[in-house]
Amino acid sequence: WAARSAPGRGALEEGFHGLVEWGVHHGASDVHLNVYLNEPESEVKYTICGRYVAPECFRRMPTRTLLEMLSVAWMDISGGNGAVFDPSAEQQGSLSRNYAGREVMLRWASMASERGPSVCLRLLEKNHAASIPSLETLGYPPAQIAMLERALFSGGGAVVFAGTVGSGKSTTLASLISRLPADRKVITI
């Protein structure tokens, strides 16, 4: 990165997608891009198996380059709030692309922090969402399935799912929602 003083859009876009592809290739659930505006170098980390990992190849990322990468990448984000990447604002959106032969959706969530913007990219494989597994397939024992179904078909109340990244929260909720009768209204956030 140090050899490029003012990379163009193509190089910046390629660099950004290279960061993401590294994460897809290594089984990351998230890419964390922490820009430190008052420092010469910023941080690129990944969540892999629930651990926050900083690969050697991205340890000395120039702040200016990372900020420019994010600005270029934001141009391709759909459903985002704001025409340009704003380091001082919370922004969200998504981008779908093929990485390492897999169709991946990036869910972009950025926020301003004291040191500079922090961008988290959730890596979601699209083909995983194509089929919703049953609770039985997910490994829930019959007693837990019965408890979840009682909560699902009750007239009110709340169910809280908590767990680490990649533990199956969203998949379990999708499985539960697929069991609802057609006359029930579903709103997801």
The stretches of 5 or more residues where confidence is low (pLDDT under 50) are 1-6
Helix content: 25-40%
Task: Indicate the radius of gyration in whole angstroms.
Answer: 20 Å
Please count the helical segments. 5
Largest sheet properties: 7 strands, antiparallel
Shape: elongated
Q: How much is the average pLDDT?
A: 87
Notes on the protein architecture:
There is one protein chain. With 189 residues, the chain is α+β, with helices and mostly antiparallel strands. 29% of the residues lie in helices and 25% in strands. It contains five helices and seven strands, in the order H-E-E-E-E-H-E-E-E-H-H-H. It has helices spanning 9-25, 63-74, 126-129, 142-153, 169-178, and strands at residues 30-34, 41-48, 51-53, 61-62, 91-99, 102-112, 117-125. Strands 1, 2, 3, 4, 5, 6 and 7 form a seven-stranded antiparallel sheet that branches. Helix 1 (9-25) crosses helix 2. The chain is elongated. The model is unreliable at 1-6 (pLDDT under 50).
What keyword list fits this structure?
alpha+beta; elongated; 5 helices; 189 residues; 7 strands; 29% helix
